[in-house]
Amino acid sequence: MYQFVMKGGVLMYPILLCSILTLAILFERLFALRRSRVIPEKFIIEVSDLVRQGRMEDAMTKCRLNDSSIARVLMAGISRHTKPHQQIKEAIEDVGRLEAANLERFLNVLGTIAGIAPLLGLLGTVTGMIKAFNVISHAGIGNPQMLAGGISEALITTAAGLVVAIPAFVFYKILRSRVDKRILRMERVSLEILDLIGQESE
Fold this sequence. Notes:
Layout: H1 2-8, H2 12-32, H3 35-38, H4 41-52, H5 56-65, H6 69-78, H7 85-103, H8 107-139, H9 144-201
Helix pairs in contact: 1-9, 2-8, 2-9, 4-5, 4-9, 5-6, 6-7, 6-9, 7-9, 8-9
C-alpha cells in the first residue's frame, strides 16, 4: 500500500486525506442521524398525549430530559404555550432551522470531497504526464523504464481520485436524503404539536 501511494506522487496525500475525511463523516453522520437521536417516536407520542391533556409542565420536563432534535424544537413551542399562536410558531421555526443546520453538518464537506477528489486525480495525471514528457525530451523514447514512473503516477492518481470520489458522492446522496426525511418529519410533528397547543389555549 505504501509503495502504491509513493508511486502516485505527492498528490496521493491529499487524496488519502479526502478518503479518511469521507469515512469519518460517514460514520459520524450515520450515528448522529439515527431516528432515536433525532425524532424518537415513543417520545413524540408521550409529549403529544401530555399536551393534549393540558399538562404543559410535564411536557416541558419530558422535553428537557430528552436529548433529541425534536425535543428541542418542541420545547421552544411548549414553553411559550401561553403566548400568541404566531409567536409560538416563530419560536418553533427558529429552533427548527438551527436543528436542521445541525443535521446537515459536514454534508457540504462530503459534497466538496466528491467534487475535488477527481480533480486531484486529474492534476496527478497532468503532473505525471509532464514528468513522462520531460523524460522523453531529455532521454528520448529508447528507455521505457524511465517513462514508466511518470505514466504510472498519472494512472494511479486518476484511479485513486475516482475511488475516493465515487463513494463520497454516493454517501453524500444517501445522507442528504436521510437528512431531508428527518427534517420533513420534524416539521410535521411540530405542526401537530402547534395545533394541539392552539386547541388547548382556546
